[in-house]
Structure to design on (414 residues):
């Protein structure tokens, strides 16, 4: 049996106990919560448009994957929740600054609202640590 | 190759064949459908507010995980779909009555509607059986 | 470490590099993007109602799973995003034409919009290759 391990990064504030974990690993599989640009420590939203909010989220995902012993390219699945689906290309632009190689599979939908009116983007992910490694030449 | 196994509990009614499974296990990984407080057997919704509907859902998740040989704390990922995102704290309150330790990662969004107007909450989950076990002292 | 492998099918057009993958496999686990009836090659939507759009999506899922060495019945989890939740039974009807045995667990919600106004359905999936195999008699 493989026990779950909470992945912590100094770059992202965890919520208080009894709410949720930002990131859990079970063996090589890593689950990342639906992240937003809301900073729980500062109690404020860190950016005001889709592009910048997505950048904050991907920075946090990168920090969490690094803390888990992997890289952001180990993410194989993303779900992107937007409050305005016409801004999808802004999120795509942010994503292109963080990922290389075969991009994650992705769903993208417009939801009615996120937890705060100033939040425009929420993104969750599943990663497999080591999955982005190039097969070694032989 | 590991075959999928349908997980059944006497506490939750399965839909008729040809629709969906409430819970499937593939080895230690358990997938739980987006559950609601709608009782397929009685053809009625079991509770009328977010807190009570979430309680029904978490009771069902607990029953399914028990039937799968695990516990509700083996859930590592939740997605919560609400029809009124301002009720998020009601769902959090219900969740605190069921989970201990490191809580699952979670996404939470407001959708436009669920399959019936009296349904206010739908929650899906992924669990890894045994993942909440404390590493044994040695 | 298991590296991810992009699954390609001649029956579904991949987006250009830097956007997303339609399907990635990590060992036996297969992640399928939120697929729609939009044909990226032809730049047009292939069907005009929920039933037909869902059929296109399930045809693509079947092609991708076949390319991955499995079958559509290896899908264990679906998430269905609809722009009109009252059309859920049309998607169910399409699904019944593609799946056999224990159906996948499923979430189904109404979202505010998908990426184009003529898109009515988006469906994502997770599969475990070989999971639908019948245990051999012994």
């Amino acid at each position: 049996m493989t026990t779950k391990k909470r992945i912590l990064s100094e770059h992202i504030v965890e919520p208080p106990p009894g709410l949720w974990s930002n990131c859990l690993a079970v063996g090589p599989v890593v689950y990342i919560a639906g992240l937003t640009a809301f900073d729980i420590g500062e109690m404020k939203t860190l950016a005001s448009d889709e592009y910048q909010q997505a950048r904050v989220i991907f920075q946090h995902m990168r920090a969490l994957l690094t803390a888990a012993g992997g890289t952001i390219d180990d993410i194989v699945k993303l779900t992107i929740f937007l409050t305005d689906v016409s801004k999808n290309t802004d999120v795509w632009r942010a994503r292109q600054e963080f990922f290389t190689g075969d991009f994650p599979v992705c769903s993208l939908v417009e939801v009615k609202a996120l937890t705060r009116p100033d939040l425009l983007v929420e993104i969750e992910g599943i990663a497999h640590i080591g999955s982005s490694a190039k097969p070694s030449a032989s």
About this structure: Residues 39 and 45 of chain B are 6 Å apart (CA to CA). The mean pLDDT of chain B is 96. The helical segments of chain B are 50-67, 88-96.
